[in-house]
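pls design
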């Protein structure tokens, strides 16, 4: 019997991972948080196939109860994918304590329960680390050995999660691995993330329900891939004989500005840029209408200007290779496929 527990199953990555594991005939448990509004939209199509349980990464008792239930099934292996997090970098500056509790100490709670419940020998643990660990980058591109320099409460909390996972692996012999994933997107991306904000705006502007798109740092550069490719990489990490840490990335860099241009181009609109910094605007080349504006409101207190990964290790040892290109990703998001 193959059993997996996914925290954050209602999120973008969690929903794709649940689909993948069901295809591979796992029994899939999911940790969901109680909410006054329904938050299972991304998994509604597979809802009846999942074992969903209420819990929270801030509450050890709820996690313990779920792990004990899974343990009672006498599985040979339990794969735990910790994807749950306060995942918005900008918002982490507003709720730093909560971010630290969930993204940092939440990892510790899971790892410590694995030990205290006697699950050490049957659990494989995956920690969702992040390219935000690199922050103020110390080398280009970033690999598994690049020094970390996080620039947000989110990045700092994820740094704790990374190191406590590595520490429990080395101290107690746990199968525990970190996936340092660079930005990965899809039509299921949360509405407040910049890629989804851009692609939604393209359609809303054309429908007449939105006047223009307002963004922050247009020249921030990221290494963007598709979430489907990245969750497959997560699964591959868990199928290895020995745990290790891996970067997953496209090994290429694109600016927010380029993402905007390509998104509008999907709908046949060319953007011309006029002005500088906060006074810069993006205009439709045909009509001259202002479609994009810049606001200081959307700049981070400490900016991360450039992230580009080197996933050679994963491509070599895991034989992982992303299938969806940057242009295909943008088109899929604008057309809202999948």
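designed seq:
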């Amino acid at each position: 019997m193959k059993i997996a527990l996914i925290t954050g199953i209602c999120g973008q990555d969690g929903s794709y991972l649940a689909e993948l594991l069901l295809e591979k005939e796992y029994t899939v448990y999911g940790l969901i948080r109680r909410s006054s509004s329904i938050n299972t939209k991304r998994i509604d199509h597979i809802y009846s196939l999942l074992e969903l349980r209420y819990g929270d990464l801030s509450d050890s008792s709820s996690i313990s109860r779920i792990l004990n239930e899974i343990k009672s099934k006498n599985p040979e292996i339990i794969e735990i994918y910790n994807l749950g997090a306060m995942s918005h970098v900008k918002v982490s500056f507003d709720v730093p304590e909560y971010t630290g509790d969930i993204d940092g100490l939440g990892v510790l709670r899971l790892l410590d329960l694995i030990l205290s419940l006697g699950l050490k020998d049957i659990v494989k643990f995956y920690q969702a680390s992040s390219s935000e660990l690199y922050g103020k980058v110390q080398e280009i591109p970033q690999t598994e050995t690049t020094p970390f320099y996080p620039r947000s409460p989110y990045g700092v909390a994820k740094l704790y999660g990374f190191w406590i996972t590595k520490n429990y692996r080395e101290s107690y012999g746990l199968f525990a691995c970190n996936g340092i994933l660079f930005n990965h997107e899809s039509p299921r991306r949360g509405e407040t993330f910049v890629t989804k904000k851009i692609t939604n705006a393209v359609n809303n502007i054309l429908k007449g329900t939105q006047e223009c798109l307002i963004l922050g740092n247009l020249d921030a550069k990221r290494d963007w891939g598709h979430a489907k490719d990245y969750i497959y990489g997560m699964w591959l990490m868990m199928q290895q004989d020995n745990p290790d840490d891996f970067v997953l990335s496209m090994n290429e860099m694109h600016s927010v500005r380029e993402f905007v241009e390509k998104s509008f181009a999907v709908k046949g609109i060319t953007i011309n840029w006029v002005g500088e910094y906060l006074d810069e605007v993006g205009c439709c080349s045909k009509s001259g209408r202002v479609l994009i504006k810049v606001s200081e409101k959307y700049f981070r207190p400490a900016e991360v200007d450039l992230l580009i990964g080197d996933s050679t290790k994963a491509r070599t040892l895991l034989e992982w290779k992303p299938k969806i290109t940057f242009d295909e990703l943008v088109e899929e998001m604008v057309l809202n496929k999948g």
